[in-house]
Amino acid sequence: MPLAFESLSHGTVAFGFFNIESDMLLLDRCFFFATDFCSLVTAMVKTGQSPATQLPAYVFDDPRDIGDLMGAIHGLRYTGFIGAVYRRFPFPEEPSGFRQNPEGWRTRAVMADLIAGRARREALRISVSPEPAEVAFGDYRFDRTGFQALLGYLWRGGYPRWRDRVRPACVLEMAAAIRAICPSWERAGRSRSGED
User: Fold this and answer.
1) Mean pLDDT of the chain
2) I need a surface site. Which of 83, 89, 106, 136 has the fewest CB within 10 A?
3) What are phi and psi of 178, to 5 degrees?
4) What backbone phi and psi angles, to 5 degrees, belong to 3?
5) How many whole angstroms separate alpha carbon 16 and alpha carbon 89?
6) pLDDT (0 to 100) of residue 47
7) What is residue 20's three-state secondary structure?
8) For residue range 36-64, what is the model confidence (pLDDT) as tens digits?
9) Cα(30)–Cα(61) distance, integer angstroms
10) Coil, helix or strand at residue 67
């Protein structure tokens, strides 16, 4: 489930996984794959450079075309892109099945087909500025604390957490790269509840 995060540019925004069978993430009206995002962060950290780079994404101009997440989860309204996703990958009947699949990358082709024609393709410009410490995703800007919270969400597998506590390789590689330069990053990116 996406959670609320504070941005510098847009106030409170939704970020996170929206279906347990996919590694696709949403950031407000922008959708992109966690594998791409984690690889980009890993590369930026390993090179020690923060030049602008691009993240392949899908952007909805009209938020109504995204669909009704809660309606789809409850099986009541299958509208827009999210409705199409939940028709294909319904919410589990048993609460114990509500865990983020660490192999969600396997559904990438299906997700790309479902979103095609619904949102426009765009390369989100990602940039890091050291002073003040900010990260920008297209028009969305986060301070250091806000960005660490996004990374912490990925580390945990969001809400409901990774299935069987197994993290995908892209998340482990990203975490290892960050930990090499900032050993305490996981604590900095914890949720408000302080959970790991």
Assistant:
1) 90
2) 106
3) -70, -45
4) -120, 170
5) 17
6) 79
7) coil
8) 999 999 988 887 766 568 999 999 999 99
9) 9
10) coil
